[in-house]
Amino acid sequence: MIRIGILISGSGSNLQSIINAVRMGTIAGEIVKVISNDEKAYGLTRAAEAGISTEVVKHGDYAGRAAFEEKLLSVLQEAAVELVVLAGFMRVLGAGFLAAFPDRVINIHPALLPSFPGTHGQAQAFTYGVKLAGCTVHFVDEQVDHGPIIMQAAVPVLADDDADRLAARILRCEHKIFPLALALYCAGRLRIEKRKVSILGVDETLLEDQCLISCPV
Ligand code: GAR
Fold first, then answer.
1. What is the pLDDT of residues 129-172, one digit of tens each?
2. How far is the CA of 201 from the centre of ligand 1 (A)?
3. Which value, in Å, is the radius of gyration of the alpha carbons in the chain?
4. Fewest CB within 10 A of the end CB: N or C in the chain?
5. How far does the centroid of ligand 1 lie from the alpha carbon of residue 84, in Å?
């Protein structure tokens, strides 16, 4: 069982999808700590309801990023966390933090990276006028929303969408691929070579002819 620590900042719907997958036994891991940098984050309630230990570490309480990250690290290390999952965590983690968890920090981003990194990826994609939007699960490296990609899911942008409606459609996909990617990690089925992540033991024969077209005419 991999010991998982999850960092959140908000509603925690992705956290919930991971809690559910752990409960179902799809993820061979145990969520041993949930940390939020915002004490009002609803995800804290979700974690508490699931009987998971929580902690609030507010970035504003620390002199700078280094001190904030040191505190995060001490909470995670005290809980003997082996894998750090960023589930809607809205702070950037620096080299010092990442060095403590090499290739062991995984993030979800609500856009098809490398397009639309940073905040409000869904709104950026909507405003740009893309026809397919989506989400990305990736290992975290020192650049923002940049590390090796584990999994992506695409959704069409519909004519009567607004940014919120599109974000909701993307979020439903996030809830599918995030637990799936974590399940693969915990099963030891991910290999990183440079930027490329391969998934061991998948039969890709059906994928070759798959194609998602944004307008089914
Ligand atoms: C999700 O859409 C996630 O992809 C995004 O924040 C939302 C959190 O929702 N993360 C980022 O934008 C990180 N750059 P949740 O709290 O309901 O899981």
1. 999 999 999 999 999 999 999 999 999 999 999 999 999 999 99
2. 29
3. 17
4. C
5. 15
Find the residues whose C-beta lies inside 6 A of ligand 1: 8, 10-14, 43, 87-88, 108-110, 121, 171, 174
Domain contains 210: no
The question of whether 59 is a catalytic residue gets the answer no
pLDDT score, position 217: 72
Are residues 96 and 113 located together in one domain of the fold? no
**How does pLDDT run across 87-102, given as a tens digit for each residue?**
999 999 999 999 999 9
Nearest CA owner, ligand 1 atom 3: 88
Q: What integer pLDDT is reported at residue 117 of this predicted model? A: 98
Say if residues 21 and 27 touch (Cβ distance below 8 Å). Answer: yes
The arithmetic mean of pLDDT across residues 46-63, rounded, is 97
Q: Are residues 95 and 115 located together in one domain of the fold?
A: no
How big is the CA angle at 11 (ends 7 and 16), to the nearest 5 degrees? 70
CA of 176 to the centre of ligand 1 (A): 14
